[in-house]
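Researcher: Let's walk through a ligand-bound prediction step by step. First, I give you the protein sequence. Second, the SMILES string for adenosine-5'-triphosphate. Third, you return the three-dimensional complex as structure tokens. Ready?
Model: Ready.
Researcher: Here are steps one and two:
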Amino acid sequence: MITINNLHKKFGEIQVLKGIDLCINTGVFAILGPNGSGKTTLNKCILGMVYPDKGTISIDNKEITSQWLYRQKIDYLPQIANFPNNITVDELIKMIKDLRNEKKIDETELLDLFKLKPFLKKKLNNLSGGTKQKVNLLLTFLFDSPILILDEPTTGLDPAALIILKDLILKEKQKGKIILVTSHIMSFVEDISDKIIFILEGKIYFNGSIQELKTSTGQESFEHAIANILIDNHA
Ligand SMILES: Nc1ncnc2c1ncn2[C@@H]1O[C@H](COP(=O)(O)OP(=O)(O)OP(=O)(O)O)[C@@H](O)[C@H]1O
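Model: Step three, the predicted complex:
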């Protein structure tokens, strides 16, 4: 369980998070909000990559401040992954496996799933954007940790890969994991999410199921419910 209390974060003059309270249990949680609303900042606070100015984050009832071992419990897909461009896909996989000296699953299944075997000897700078994203996803799903944080996982994926990703997320959910997903693709969010957390102006504007969101906004479709919040708040 991830528990967040009164989380604040400011960058210079911009107060990004203004008191976030959240309790995140197993299942798929979509963190939504307009561009610049602080979704990535929240994810990075959980990962210890950004230090909050105020507030606490606990994982399984242990505060994470100044800790680092807990990060072994988290698999993270960053919004933009920056790996050295001149190494090949198989060199990158080996490097990440060596760096994260943890229990890993056999990558063969993931290589087959994302049809990456033909690219193993190719350098990263020769890959298309979508293929790079598939490599990033493979690296994320390689360690079978209890918490998964996926920041814009659909970027560049074709429809077939999107279905594979959805199935993979739902399979990981069945294992009882906590999965946080940030995405602007509402059909994708609707297919995978148990709960929607909508951040607006630094606070949690909505926290509930898709059905509750539709009811509270009076909209029949999820996409319209989200659009409704944005329009109503001039976001
Ligand atoms: N390291 C940083 N230094 C300064 N400002 C930052 C930093 N990281 C984020 N910000 C600012 O914080 C705000 C929130 O950014 P964040 O990336 O968390 O938003 P987001 O909701 O993930 O946006 P998007 O949907 O566009 O990905 C933005 O105004 C951004 O410019």
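Researcher: And what stands out?
Model: The chain has one domain: 2-232. The chain has eight helices and ten strands.
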